[in-house]
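Sample 3 of the quickstart, ligand flavin-adenine dinucleotide:
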Amino acid sequence: MDTYDYIIVGAGIGGIILAKYFEEKGLSYVMLEASDHVGGRINTTSQHNTCFELGAARVLSSQHRVMNLISELNLELEEQLLTDAAVYLEGMWHDSLDDLLSSVDYPDPFELFHALLDKTGIVNLSDFERLAPLEWDRVLTKDWLESEGIPSAFSMRYFLGDIDVTMNQITLYESMYFFVSNLAASDSKVYRMQGGLSQLVNTLSGHIKSPVYKQQVEHVGYTADGVMVKTTNQTYQAHKVVFTCSLNALSHVELPSEANNSLTTCLSAGHYGKSIKGIITFNSNVFPSHDYLITEDPLRMLRRSDFHWEFYLPSLEKSWDTDKLIKQLHAYFGADSVRDLRLHTYDMPPFYGCYWNYKSGYFHRIFEFSKAQRLAERVYSIGEHFSLNPNWIEGTLESVDQFILSDSQ
Ligand SMILES: Cc1cc2nc3c(=O)[nH]c(=O)nc-3n(C[C@H](O)[C@H](O)[C@H](O)COP(=O)(O)OP(=O)(O)OC[C@H]3O[C@@H](n4cnc5c(N)ncnc54)[C@H](O)[C@@H]3O)c2cc1C
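Result:
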């Protein structure tokens, strides 16, 4: 049996970037992927010449790693103009979020955030890590905004456009972190990729050895000088193994006890929710000139063509079934309006849920764990969960950078 320098588990963007690094260093590796394709949670599909993102969709201008990667690969971005898009709020359509904000008499949440940072002397991310008061992690953002004069229903809708969690999960500590790292700059922008984000992984895969597909890793054990990794039907040997899947997916793998203990500690910092994305086709579109729908549920929809909408339920605690969803859509678009509904969920193998699902008082612990990639001797885990950008491709790239840095020292 061949003994590789590294086994990489998972062929998402993290595994692929890591493989590219091993290629450049002349290290031997094998990449094992449970599914039959690359990309993991980056998954673009197309219908009637329109791209739908069934996984990651947005890139923020402040995310310099992913922005650099996109520019190196000569891929094109297009701005996603959420503030100019019409939104459905409180049972009616508004021409734009900006119009809506200017028509109400509430303080601007972003100005309140700026004022709070001024008060604490935080001007950048490293200040945030040093100076942010931990008690913010006990305060829900919606409660704080309400105390500042913004009704909670309004603040919830305002933030759902940018953040992937519900207002009952997000603490002021996390909101402020996200604000400082991504939104504080007045020229920050939200992009989507022309032709879909899968181009990122497809272009990069041309530079690495093809993964071995349909290899779901189930067990890791030690040999005299390395590790033995068993999948459903094969055994592989290497000096080290690097997992790149979500921590929740990793919790389904039988690991050596030290690695298992480290994983349990990491998982205790939060728990995982599920995300659902999909494509909806309508018989007729009663809102042909409207682009973006945010509802209280929370449910977000982006119009991609006359009859097709991309649909997203962020990380949720409550369960949604198709019947309930269709009922809800009929309420917005009229009875029998839905022709086709295709959903993609992230709470089954090989994904098993993918988000940190924050609890009050836990976000700061993600900072503690953000660099803990070594689970045990020869067993590593990388991914956006070990970064200060959890839930973003940027976080995955940050984590790979950290691994490369520690590996080269
Ligand atoms: C619905 C949704 C929306 C998102 N939106 C955005 C967004 O707008 N912008 C953004 O930047 N990020 C977004 N993200 C997050 C982004 O997709 C991830 O941060 C990133 O793609 C993670 O890449 P990764 O390589 O670390 O992990 P993954 O993409 O999860 O790759 C891990 C791979 O490991 C494989 N695997 C799992 N278990 C095993 C096993 N036991 N054996 C073998 N293989 C295994 C999986 O099949 C998968 O291919 C979103 C994620 C989801 C789910």
